[in-house]
Amino acid sequence: MSITSDETTRTHDAHGRLNEFYGVQAIYGRADPMHELIGTILSHRTTHANEVTAYRTMRERFPTWEAVRDAPLPDLIDAIRTANYPEVKAPYIQNLLAHLIRETGAANIDFLRDMSTTEAMQWLTNLPGIGPKTATLLLLFNFHKPVLPVDTHVHRVTQRLGLIGPNVSAEKAHAILLARLPPDAVVLFNFHKHFYWHGQRVCTWYNPKCSDCVLRDRCVYYQSGGQMKLSSTPMRKRV
Ligand code: SF4
Predict the structure, then answer these.
(1) pTM of the predicted model, to two decimals?
(2) Ranges for the HhH-GPD domain (predicted)?
(3) Does ligand 1 lie within 6 Å of residue 208's CB atom?
(4) Is the CB of 160 under 6 A from ligand 1?
(5) Ligand 1 atom 2: the closest Cα is on which residue?
(6) What is the pLDDT of residues 192-217, one digit of tens each?
(7) CA separation (Å) from 234 to 98, 200, 222?
(8) Structural domains of the chain ordered from first start
């Protein structure tokens, strides 16, 4: 992967502006790594409120992880039905728990804290149904490892700004952006949070609020009048 100083400078510039706009945060996450792991699966294409309801209902009906693993599939699907795609997520969760308990003897991933970042990433992404987004969210939020989660919001905003190429996937963006940033968990947490918030609140999928955006003068998507073809974004008439 080649890194030009211009790309690094533009990445740092956008990061600095969003730090000023949103304010630098200390790292926070769910206290229980297993909650983060399963909650992240439930959260895929689901609002936060619906994810919380799905998780709470699942834990009320099946209070232990062994009970979740062994639940009749239709019952687990029903318990998490407020999350989108429950019929896909329920078997994912059961496979994951079965694998975890078989391999380690318990539904507990606290041992990741003592692994190197590379080892922990490898271990997590070898689990069934766990990709780089879930693995990096868990490792950064719960274990403060220096990784960079790139979800749909981070992907869209960095692509519109031209920090990554128009066809770069979210999976590839993890490594590209990470290579330009210091290996510091607090910096990476703020980069993730701020681009995530910006994508949710300002640089939205449809009708981005460019007139309110502190990044407008550096944004290639804005300068193109919304006419850039990006893998993360539908074509717009004019922004
Ligand atoms: S100027 Fe518009 S398209 Fe560019 S980052 Fe800001 S909100 Fe997004």
Answers:
(1) 0.87
(2) 42-201
(3) yes
(4) yes
(5) 210
(6) 999 999 999 999 998 999 999 999 99
(7) 39, 16, 14
(8) 5-26+149-223 (1.10.1670.10), 33-143 (1.10.340.30)
